[in-house]
Amino acid sequence: MPSVLLSRRRLLSASGGCLSVATAGCAGTESSDSATGTADDGVRVESSHEYEKKAVRVERDSPFVYPNDEAADHAEDGLGARLHASFFVTNTDDAAALRIDAPDADAADVRSFVEATDFAAESVLVDQRSIDDCYRRRLLGVRAADDSVRTSYCRELKAPTSACEAQKTVLEATLVRIHRPYEDHPSSRSSSESRSCSGRLPADATDGESTNETEANDTTTDETTVNESRKTDERNETNEVSDR
Does this model's pTM top 0.70? Predict the structure, then answer.
């Protein structure tokens, strides 16, 4: 198994969290050493590489992190925003070009996480999607192949001590630092998300802390696959919902 030792710089950048999201964004960091997670449908998710995750929430209904200024300008229409909801940051040029339309503190959280990446050995996936304010999204596992990356998530209610607003939807950017470098952006990106998690947060855990293990239970899984082509700049997206 790869070493789980992290640099002092990495540890410092990952130490931030938040306890309240009443009016501002929320950021939390998790890490994994190729752990195996279990979704409620009983499917075990085995990660191919170590990774760290940071989640940043902003009160808006469209993506707020873009690959560059041009992408942000094209996102003014609904289709453009959807195309850039998920993308990869694979080198320092990509990192420098990021456009982040968020409050200063949230933008700083995103930049510090990305800038702490060693792109000679790691890459960052930016994955943005909406979520109810009183729920949290857990990353169960990451499988990174030569030209594809697959992530598996589940959703669960926040801890009772976490501040939230019922019937409110926020936009969450999940940043996943995968311990695998890519010279070119992977052309295939897929993701599955279970609508519930059977495991519960420890009583003393914050929103940025959790394990990647849950117990089996019945659930419904949303499946989304996005194929990206750098040559044609076209993306095909399919959504599939299956009851298990």
Answer: no
